[in-house]
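[audit] Reproducing an earlier prediction to check determinism. Same input, same settings, fresh worker. If the tokens differ from the archived copy the diff job will pick it up downstream; this log only records the rerun itself.
[audit] input (353 residues):
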Amino acid sequence: MAKITNHLVIMAGGVGSRFWPMSTEEKPKQFIDVLGVGRSLMQLTYDRFEGICDPENVWVVTNRKYADIVHQQLPEIPVGNILLEPCRRNTAPCIAYVSWRIKKKDPKANIVVTPSDHLVANPQEFRRVITQCLKFTGETDAIVTLGMKPTRPETGYGYIQADLSTSSPRNKEIFRVDRFREKPNLETAQKYIQESNFFWNAGIFLWNVETIVNAFRVYQPSLSKVFEGMLDILGTPQEQETVDRLYPECENISVDYAIMEKAEEIFVCPADFGWSDLGTWGSLHEQTPRDLYGNACIGQNIKMIESHNCIIHATGQKKVVVQGLDGYIVAEKDGTLLICKLSEEQRIRQFQE
């Protein structure tokens, strides 16, 4: 039997508007060294998959205006593996495009799809789980999604309800999905956390290329028709021009709605490797080392005086001194300064305007 090759798809098209002013439309958060560790979130995502797949089988799908940033930050991957969307169309068209593109190159490929801007605290455990799941999708026609054990009643994530009564005979860590649940209200989230079979949907998917292409054919025929019709020109100089013309006609739909909630053979692997989607300043505050007073400081030149539970992000040259604040975001970038209560951070998009 021919060896199945693993491919990695990094989805890097988002605009990260909740992290303004650090994240801007010109340079969204996935391309920023959010944690102050010398690597952007996208680079950290790439690093986590070391040993799982070779650089020539890593694909990044992003907006055409970020092509240069992706190439600068991930010089290891072939330029032809950076696929450029002419406009934002959610995750289903993005995944369909890259799936047919990979199918053209490697019709038996095993694929893992991940967002570019999430955080994983335990990369060793992450690699173990991903390797197990890829073995499973290589041997079956299953779609696997990773479920994170909830640590709090979170209303910002979708949930996966698993059938934990029997695991898959091939892998005792993998279970059938009962159903996907929308982002809940607080009361519902509190119920979920008391049940052992509800998990956060991390948006990390694993499948064989044949499986996902067939799923699109069955559940999203109009979308599959677009990319099926492009098969001959994928990987040729005509590809970009055709994508630019046809992509805007694709339905704006997430892969969860388009495929996950409809398909039969859907499995979840409950996992615990310190995952966060880093969706907000509050989650960054949680994930960053804090001083005795609960302050998280990212930047070389920050001094905190009589302040508590703040997150300060100031990586420029300026010295920053903060006195007497409790529970605030202070973020400075390119001449813009935001000072905002952490409890009011959902209004940041308004403030931008």
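[audit] rerun output stored. Observation attached for the diff report: The mean pLDDT is 93.
[audit] end
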